[in-house]
Amino acid sequence: MAVSETVIAGPGSALYPWQKPSWQKLIQYASTGRVPHALMISGLDGIGKLNLALCFANHLLCGSPKASEIRCKACDACRLIDAGTHPDLIRIEPPEAGKAITIDRVRDLSATLALTSQYNRYRIVLLRDADRLNSAAANALLKTLEEPGKGTVLILLTARCHELPATIRSRCQRLDIPVPDHRLAADWLKENLSSGDCEALLAMASGAPLKALAMGVAGNLEGRNTLFSRWREVAANHSDPVRIAENLSSLPLRDVLVWITGWTIDMIRLAMVPSARSLSNPDLRSALQGEAQKLDLKELFRFYEHLLQSASRVGSPVNAQMLLEALLIDWYSMKRNR
Q1: For residue 285, which of 270, 297, 300, 272 has the smallest C-alpha distance?
Q2: Which of 30, 85, 97, 212 is the most buried (most CB within 10 A)?
Q3: Per-residue model confidence as pLDDT tens digits over 74-122
Q4: CA distance 89 to 133
Q5: How far is it, in rounded angstroms, from Cα 176 to Cα 44?
């Protein structure tokens, strides 16, 4: 699912508790006058990359920033930031989830950067989901990275930096955002989620607090549990995989694949080390261990490869129900020790 990183009132106005170490690295760039012309902020979806990048952009654009603050909130530049109309903050992102950033958008950027900065300070380009650049757009952006212009700072955000061309990665100063400390993330989630199993949600979100919160608000834990029940029914030959696929086709395909992949990885871990502590679905340990004991480890790895192939098709034209049918039929057909 798409994760909205807007839990803080006004993205870019305050830091999440786990972002302070990364913020110190960014502030050091500004305080020493060594702001990189191209910065790649990478990390899991749902850890607040957008918020961190906006905080840094706002700090650079502020007319009177203090090292200990994001911005002064009183100068002309800050008033434009508050209104969302600062002319030297340029945002680029895919037109919609799963779509590519095209060369036309990058050409428009090049034309804009050829003009003089409005405030003669920094000009920030915030490129969200940079891994969604198509090949032509990536090549066009490369020219801008090589000659960005005075005061121009390009900030690329990505959860999949390996999907960007090496030529782009090599021209960026990289800042990897780690998964937050579990206790810190869990405490924050409990403060911001009125109900729900915070530990299970955090595990489902691979430790990303904002993604866990979005899942909790959307009721994804209930959706996952429903799918898990149907998935086990298929394994036990109690349900027709084609009918189950039809019934579950209303669930977001990306979420379904993430959940089933998580269960499969957990089963592989439990098959190899029954006492494994690190699971994506710790609340399902007993049921997953029971399923893993019935299956050959090679079969689990083969099914995992099938899941990866299916996941690679998300974002391209695909019949979600047919893809889910194929997965459930495969799951149904696997040889089991009864």
Answers
A1: 270
A2: 212
A3: 999 999 998 989 999 999 999 887 789 999 999 999 988 888 777 778 9
A4: 20
A5: 10
- Of 7-11, 26-30, 139-143, 160-164, which gets the smallest average pLDDT? 7-11
Q: What is the pTM of this model?
A: 0.80
Q: Where are the domains of the chain?
A: 17-176, 219-333
Report d(CA 46, CA 33) in Å as an integer: 30
**How far apart are the C-alpha atoms of 5 and 2, rounded to whole Å?**
10
* pLDDT given at position 320: 85
Q: What is the CATH number of domain 17-176?
A: 3.40.50.300
230 alpha-carbon distance from chain centroid: 27
Domain over 219-333 is classified CATH 3.40.50.10240: no
**In the chain, what are the helix, strand and coil shares in percent, each to the nearest 5?**
55, 10, 40
Per-residue pLDDT, 199: 87
DSSP secondary structure, 273-311, as one string: -TT----S-GGGHHHHHHHHHHS-HHHHHHHHHHHHHHH
Percent of the chain with pLDDT over 90: 60
DSSP 8-state assignment for residue 116: P
